[in-house]
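Structural prep section.
Before we set up the soaks we want a predicted structure of the protein with zinc ion in place, mainly to decide which crystallisation condition to try first. Input record follows.
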Amino acid sequence: MAYTSTNPYLNARCEYVLAKLALIGNPDGEDETWSPLVDAQALGSQDAQRAHETGEDIPVPAFFADVPELKREWFSGWNWYDEMVDMQNCSGCNNSRGDPCPCHG
Ligand SMILES: [Zn+2]
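Run finished without errors. Recording the tokens verbatim:
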């Protein structure tokens, strides 16, 4: 990547924009947008974890807010974390078989 910053949200945003531009320049080229989308999802889980641990209210990152795909992935990471916490606190999931209950399976 040509541009790096210490802000992981800005990095994902730049990477996404560059991947999109690359596709415009070369529509037959490989679609690399999945990589920043995966990063956005990971950031969503990290933020959910921080919010959970600190009680902090974390809004959608400004660098993702106006890009629907990045925003969606960030939320999906956030929801994934929430679901994981739910499962940890769910007696149905913590049975002797170790299988998730019907609502979390
Ligand atoms: Zn459950």
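Observations: The chain has a mean pLDDT of 92.
Flagged for discussion at group meeting.
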